[in-house]
Design brief:
The chain has about 240 residues and is an alpha/beta fold. The protein has helices at about 20-35, 45-55, 115-120, 120-140, 165-175, 180-185, 220; strands at about 1-5, 10, 15-20, 40-45, 65-70, 80, 90, 140-145, 150, 160-165, 195-205, 205-215. It is built from 7 helices and 12 strands. The chain has an 8-stranded mixed beta sheet with strand order 5-4-10-1-11-12-9-8. Strands 2-3 form a two-stranded antiparallel sheet.
């Protein structure tokens, strides 16, 4: 089975929609997606993801209706970041020196138990997403068994998710047994990027998910559309026009 995890186009967060650039990106993405044989589509309920999906669905030939799932919305908890506890921050907006020295964030089984995350119910939200994702994977034929999966009904289907970067990291964390904290801070998927994940079943009935491409935006480059900066922070501290 192949999973395509697709981030929405350049967002207008205030209005939960796409910017004009985001609409151009979604259109370029749709040309790419139209060439794929996709069997099922699952969509976040948020406007920016739905707009992105709608642009692609116009050019897709699906044998089943796309489904909207609430658990695919952006990962919502707001935390009291250690250096500015008076403000509500997204979970993947920490200064490196404030978290990299704490071994708990490198532990797949314990990273959600850090006090700041416990206070914000991050553990409960992660478990909710993982539980719903697990139910869907079970329906699709794959059941987690410790750190790998049982291929109960192995298949070569392609499944697409239109969602968000923060949520994408939570999904990959479940598949790969990597603490989400490392994915949130060590990776960034640009708007309309496509992450491709395949199952590998090297022994009958036993599978593992492997990423063959992360955050691919070749559909933008081929049309000279620069990637949006959304989700990133300043490349250099002196870059005053970039988010710090």
């Amino acid at each position: 089975m192949r999973l395509l995890i697709i981030r929405h186009g350049d967002p207008d967060y205030v209005n939960d929609s796409l910017t004009e650039k985001g609409k151009r990106e979604a259109e370029l993405l749709s040309d790419r997606i139209a060439k794929e044989k996709i069997d099922r589509v699952y969509i976040s309920p948020l406007g920016r993801a739905r707009e992105t999906a709608e642009a692609c669905l116009k050019k897709m030939k699906l044998s089943s209706e796309p489904k909207v799932y609430d658990w695919l919305k952006e990962f919502a908890p707001r935390i009291k970041r250690p250096d500015r506890p008076e403000m509500g921050s997204i979970c993947w907006d920490w200064m490196p020196e404030d978290w990299t020295g704490n071994e708990i964030f490198y532990d797949f089984d314990k990273w959600t138990e850090y006090p700041v995350f416990m206070e914000a119910n991050v553990k409960e939200e992660v478990r909710y997403v993982w539980t719903e994702f697990e139910k869907l994977l079970n329906e699709l034929g794959y059941e987690k068994n410790g750190k790998y999966f049982k291929a109960v009904k192995p298949n070569n289907d392609t499944v697409a998710f239109f969602c968000h970067f923060g949520l994408e990291s939570v999904l990959l964390s479940y598949l790969l047994n990597i603490p989400t904290m490392l994915l949130w801070h060590g990776f960034i998927a640009a708007p309309t990027s496509v992450t491709t994940v395949y199952t590998e079943e090297r022994r009958e009935g036993k599978a593992y998910f492997r990423v063959s491409a992360f955050g691919d935006i070749s559909h933008l480059y081929v049309k000279d559309e620069p990637p949006a900066f959304s989700g990133r922070f300043c490349e250099c501290f002196t870059n005053e026009n970039e988010r710090h």
